[in-house]
User: Fold these one by one.
Assistant:
Number 1:
Amino acid sequence: MKFLNLRRLLLLALIAAGISVIIVVSNRENRVKFPEGEIVITDGERSLKLRVEIANTPFFRSIGLMYRKSIPDDFGMLFVFEEDTRSGFWMKNTYVPLEIAFIDRNGIVFSIQEMEPCEKEPCKVYYAPKPFRYALEVKRGFFERHGFGVGSRVLIEK
């Protein structure tokens, strides 16, 4: 009988944990605090400091910019991977049109893609043409507006 009660208690604890995750997911913008930092984007003589939130763990990377109704024009989310990856990105539950810059381990932007919000599945998955170490999501038009593009360098302040 004690074993059965222990199983029920464990099941209730798992259900409570699951409900907690659902609450956090539904209120992500208000609940999850991302690490913050600055990066510097350079291209020739041009440079720009950009405030970023940093998605440097699987948990943070899975949330990204989901559930945000708006983001500032000069703001980004920097996805940081421990090693080169070919991970894909999607726009499920993301309401702001974005663009993503795929960045190699040396900080060089080698691909920029526009991403559309996804209102219902299946959502398009965006892949880099080769492995990358970092990805920077910004509001669509950011790179053109500031004169940066493929070949620009991103300096990540540690």
Number 2:
Amino acid sequence: MSDVPDGWADELRASREEKDAFFDEHRQSPIPPEDREDFDGLDYFDPDPTYRVTATVTVADSPEPVEMETSDGRTVRYRRVVTFEFEIDGEAYELAGYRQDADDAIFVPFRDKTTGQQTYSGGRYMELEPDETLADGDEVVLDFNLAYNPFCAFSETFSCPLPPEANWLDTTIEAGEREY
């Protein structure tokens, strides 16, 4: 677990309220217009600092291309640019981070033991936007409380990358968004 800044849980709740308002009211919401009248917010796990972990970075010397399957049967190409090593409940895990372009945020799709049970069957996502270029041995915070469902969880009109097997965690991550 990483250090938890003052007001962290309040900021997380405020961010969730803002997202719920966007999903409820904005014309670019992934919630189909005909379903918005019944929409009363997304379902979230309670904020839990246990799932805010410090991860050690290993940068890929030459980022390898990875073809990710998507929710509509196509594939999309990313580059595996970094590996994050971290612990949850004393057990070591790894997640790969991906980019399509050099300026993109680091995309971290993952599955865990909640996938298809308590969370969306296609997996969940996190994104990191480091302030500076990452180097081997750097430490970053992975906050699974920020894990979110891709838009395809709300409507089949979206095509979403599915987490590659390298990002299937053999643990339960009861943090972030639940299944809609």
